[in-house]
Structure formats: C-alpha cells, structure tokens
## 1
Amino acid sequence: MPTVSLGSARLPYETKGSGPGLLLVHGTGPGADITWGGIAERFAGRRTVITPDLSGSDHAVDGGEELTVELLAGQVEAVIHDAGAEPVDLVGFSLGAPVAAAVAATRPELVRRLVLVAGWSGPDDEYMRNLMTVWRRVAGDADAFGRFATLTGFSRAFLNALGAEEVEKLVPNLRPTPERLRQIDLNLRIDIRRLLPGIQAETLVIGCSQDHTIPVENARALHAGIPGSDYAEIDSGHVVLFERPAEFADLVRAFLDRPGHRKS
C-alpha cells in the first residue's frame, strides 16, 4: 500500500479501479476502510478510487499534534500529488466534508468536481456542540462511547431493521482512542465559512434528513454558502454510506458523470 510522508505524518492510501481519479475523504472514525469499504467498489469500474487514511485515523502515524482542517487538507493535497491523479473528483463525508471543501477552496486546480456529504461549515449549532461534548465526556466508558455513536449515527428505522444482533456488531466500530478524541476536538472547532465563496468546482451537497449527528440544517447551510452548488437530500441517518449505499452511489455517479458546465 502506498504511503505519503508529510511532516510527522505517515499516511497510507489505497487505490482501486481505473479511469479519472476519485478521492474519498473519511470522517470521524477509524479511517478509510470503515467509512468507504462498502462504497469504493461501486465507483471503481470507471474511476481510480483513492482512499487515504489521514491523521486521526487508526492507520495513519503522526506526532499526535492538534488536528486542524488546514492540516488534513494539506494531507489530502499530498495524496493527490503522490497518486498522480490531479485533478480529482473529491468526495468528503462528515468531518471529511469541510476538509474536502477547504481543499477545493484553496487549491482549485486539484479538484474537478466536489461532493460534500453530511457535513457542516461552522460552530454555531448548539445541538452539535453539546452532542460532541457529551460524546467526548463518555470516553471513559468504551461501551457507552460506541453506543452513543451508534445511536446518533443511524436512523431508528435502520437500527430496528438490523435487529439486536447486528446492531451489537456496530458498537465496537468506534472506540474512545486518543485519535477519536482528537477528531472530536476538531469537530468542535471547525469553521470554514469564509472559504465557501471561493469554491470554483461544481459542487453537490448531500444532506441526510434523519441525521442525529450533524442535523440536516447544517448541510443546507453548507449548500447556501457555496455559490452555484447543487443540493440533494437522502432519507437516512448520518451514516448514509451504510444505510442507503446504492441510492448514495447512484446520486454521486450521476453528478460526476453529467456533462460539464460552469457554475453560475
């Protein structure tokens, strides 16, 4: 597996498929495999899919410094260059959405089209601030930490459809490691609102109507802040990649494959 070295960080990434580059940016959690493992193959038939593990993931190695959007955006840029895939279509999920937006705003030559999924742009949502604060404060109880992430990450209908045995398998996916806590701390500090008007790439923002982690109003505000962006909403909890993978992949493919036009 290729690895990019940048400062104190060693960042592995995987590529699969062939065609134009499509880079997928993971959110809060262990990393690319958990986030994109069930989705990447849906795009690999016509694209080179690149899935990096950034600082804060379980597979990246760094000095444990404070995470910032600028730090993670710089790592995405380094992976794009190392993979020789520029410009790429760039998709960011949850924490990966503001990171991807920052790359598009500051390095427009690297991004062909941009998809921001279940993301947010600023720190003003009191629901989110309290949710992230509670999540961080239950870190002393690994089971409670994982259950809180499961409860807020998925819709009630999805959890009930899975049943108790399968839901129990979800709980250990998020453990209160130092890396998770670094990511949650960043979630509380993110503010990219000043960058949004500078995004030149054609952009699709996707909100999740039953999102109990990042309420859908945040995705709508993200869309409103990016001139000329498109918006779509999926009836799903936060982790739409698990709940509605086919619907999500079809929506993204349709956007990426449509004939090009300049943003108005």
Note: The beta strands are 3-6, 9-16, 21-25, 48-52, 88-93, 111-117, 202-208, 230-234.
## 2
Amino acid sequence: MEDSLSKVAWPVATKRLTLRRLESADLEATWRYRRLAEVTEWITAAPATLEEYTEHFLEGGRLERDVAVELSNADGTRTLIGTVMLKVHDGWGQREILDQTHSVEAEIGWSFDPAYGRLGYATEAVQAILELSFGALGLRRVVAESFAANEPSWKLMERVGMRRESYNLRNGLHRNGQWMDGVVYAMLAEEWGQAPAV
C-alpha cells in the first residue's frame, strides 16, 4: 500500500504544537517516556531495554504511520512530547466494488509524555490528526480503541467528538495476564464538522 501520509504537507502547525513525520532520530526521545510505568500500562508493546525498543521502533511500519508531536518552546526550539499513530487502511466492501474501499479509513492511537499531561496538548494533537484525516487525506472514517480501564484515553476520544460504537467484554489480554474490557470509538467524515471545539 502506498505511503498515505505523504499526501500531507508536513510539518503541520497548530496553536502550540508542530506535527511532523516520525523519524529514526526520534528513537531516544520517545524511549524516554514510553518506558515509564504509567505509559507502558496501556501501550501495545513495552520493551524492557533500549535495544528491544530500538527493534520495536524500527519494525512494522512505525515510521510510515506515526506522527511526532512537538511542543514549540519560547526560544524557538521544539520538544517531542508524544506520537500519534495514523494507520490508513482499506474499508470493507463487496467484491464488485472493492476498488472504492482502498485507503478510505484509519485507526488512530497515541502516547504522550506524562510530564506534559493535563495541558490539552494531546487533545490539540488528535484534533489536528482528525482534521488531516478528513481534509488532506480525504478519509471517510476514523476509529480509535483502548482498554476500558484507560479512562484518560477514551475521555480524549469523547473530547474530540468521537462517538462510542462498542463496549467489549474481556476482549483484550493485558500484559498483567487479565482479559480486560475494551471500547471502540469512531468518527465519520460528515461528523467532523459537527465535532465540538475544545
């Protein structure tokens, strides 16, 4: 599949942030916060060492789908404070019209440095990703999922106007060994214009 994010004119500026394509040079900056217990509690993979993290960081298309979120500092420098995954994929369709399903949907997800939490940066970044999704990328649908116990994550989904589509009982195995409930939120292109301003 083509690199869908290449359709965007990077970097993208918001009021306080700069969003750009993730680069291999961002490895150590992301490792700094992704190894923290309060972050690894909810993210998909929690490598124990920098060596393991390096392998995880460079595999599986992360550099093709992840966006670096940087805070613009007063002195003109920028600090990487998080990443947002924007994984564009095909929608489902019947065989005769499959050509109309190519690269029309996306899954989004995020991780942010807790040191920059509760300041609205994650909300600002995710709103920008949704705007890119329904604007420059022309997508029809965006989905986000999390463990139901990860309340800050699904509260963010609600703040940006996504709607809960399902609550799934014990559908995800957490690294603590428990099967945990999950939630799925989504937004359609036509709903983006109706999303509340945050």
Note: Strands lie at 12-13, 17-21, 66-72, 78-89, 105-112, 141-147, 163-173, 179-188.
